[in-house]
Write a structure and sequence with these properties.
Length: 432
């Protein structure tokens, strides 16, 4: 069912209730429904409608307008540089051919990259069908104001906004994850959708009204959950992926267990923990555009993105152990090392580079680049990544090495580098 239809229903029942607020800009449900109806694009069902510019309220209006037309809205992050935006949007098809048959009507980016866009497309029902279970977990009702930071290009932000509107709540948008934006909107919020490192910033602000924090995107530490409890803020943590939607939830600190309607299986991996496979009604359809992604399926309806986990005892609680492909989960974003390495490898003087994730207390992990190349300067590499990579993809730590470990085919041995950096037995030094 279109989310726009829910907005229309609320516009009829409570026309003067504020539907969305961004800074000093506000729209009631009646105004939001009217604006979306006026902006409805004259396109065929299944057309891909890109929304590259505009403030969050304008983008939300465009999303709802496309949804009303049966089109597939796709929102770019305003923080992306124009050349990065062009690289992401340029190779995409104009339509999603089987949109009607599969009820495909939502699309979003996952770990975008220069020249290798990953756009995940899903059906309305893969989101709206989970709204009831999400409402039970979060307690969100029409009486609440729901703080949703971040760009609407994020699956996390787009889903949280759609769910809050379907509930008839007021959505408080910030457009980014900046601390000033969070703190400005926080006094009016009853519920907030956050990533762990921003939960800490929210608690620093001593919120008086906040009742619940819904936290995803990275593992949530016990200390942070305890701190929230001491501040009177309940925490609902969850694990998922753009391609898989919700997989598991932890509403009480007792550990992750499968989300409503989701089956989870741990299959043997090459080494260490098992690979997480999921079967549920909430799976995305797949990718659009050039390049693939980590999503794999089998004939039995199961899917995986390569996440690793262990289960704890007969309770079946999951403990996440990272990605089989070495993807870096940093502050709620998934960064594919090969995407960053492809950009850095083009810099003159770079003879080899391996990107790994290093532990970080607030972000979960940070991106680190281990670079081989005489005379390569950090300042040059930083200028390149600012121009060509999204903020989450840019390395926070730069390390130099005289000779990278390599495979028998001469390729840098990513696993050996990652293990060596983690163990401290690789001959590396800070890159200057």
């Amino acid at each position: 069912m279109p989310v726009f239809r829910e907005v229309l229903a609320h516009a009829a029942a409570q026309p003067h209730r504020v539907a969305v607020r961004y800074g000093d800009t506000a729209r009631t449900y009646a105004q939001l429904a009217r604006d979306a109806e006026r902006a409805r694009p004259d396109v065929k069902p299944g057309a891909l409608v890109t929304l590259p510019d505009g403030d969050p309220v304008a983008q939300l209006t465009g999303i709802l307008a496309a949804d009303a037309a049966g089109a597939v809205p796709l929102t770019a992050d305003p923080s992306w540089r124009p050349e990065h935006q062009r690289a992401l949007l340029g190779p995409l098809p104009a339509t999603v051919d089987d949109a009607v048959a599969h009820d495909l009507a939502w699309a979003g980016f996952t770990s975008g990259s220069t020249g290798r866009p990953r756009v995940v497309v899903r059906s309305r029902s893969s989101w709206t069908g989970s709204f009831e279970a999400t409402g039970r977990l979060t307690g969100i009702t029409a009486d609440d104001a729901v703080l949703v930071p971040g760009s609407l290009s994020w699956s996390l932000t787009a889903f949280a906004t759609a769910h809050a509107l379907a509930a008839g709540a007021t959505v408080l948008l910030t457009g980014d994850w900046s601390v000033p934006g969070l703190r400005a909107a926080l006094p009016a919020a009853d519920v907030a959708h956050l990533v762990p490192h921003r939960l800490a910033a929210v608690l620093d602000a001593r919120p008086r009204r906040l009742r619940t924090a819904v936290v995803g995107g990275a593992a949530l530490g016990t200390a942070l959950r305890d701190r929230a409890a001491n501040a009177g803020v309940g925490v609902v943590a969850y694990y998922g992926a753009t391609e898989l939607s919700f997989v598991a939830v932890d509403p009480d600190g007792e550990g992750l267990r499968p989300f409503a309607g989701v089956e989870v299986s741990l299959r043997p991996a090459a080494a260490g923990p098992g690979e997480v496979w999921v079967r549920s009604p909430w799976l995305a359809h797949g990718y659009l555009g050039a390049g693939g992604g980590p999503l794999r399926r089998d004939a039995g309806g199961w899917a995986t993105v390569g996440d690793l986990a262990e289960d704890i005892g007969p309770s079946g609680r999951l403990v996440l152990r990272g990605r089989a492909d070495g993807a870096v989960l940093t502050g709620g974003a998934t960064v594919v090392p090969a995407d960053v390495e492809a950009v850095l490898a083009e810099v003159p003087g770079v003879d080899g580079v391996v990107v790994v994730g290093l532990p970080h207390a607030e972000l979960g992990q940070v991106v680190a680049a281990v670079v081989q190349g005489a005379g390569v300067r950090r300042a040059v590499l930083e200028r390149v990544v600012r121009e060509r990579l999204a903020p989450a993809q840019r390395p926070r730590r730069w390390l130099a090495i005289d000779e990278l470990p390599r495979t028998s085919t001469g390729k840098p041995a990513r696993a050996l580098v990652g293990a060596g950096v983690a163990a401290g037995d690789l001959p590396i030094r800070p890159l200057t």
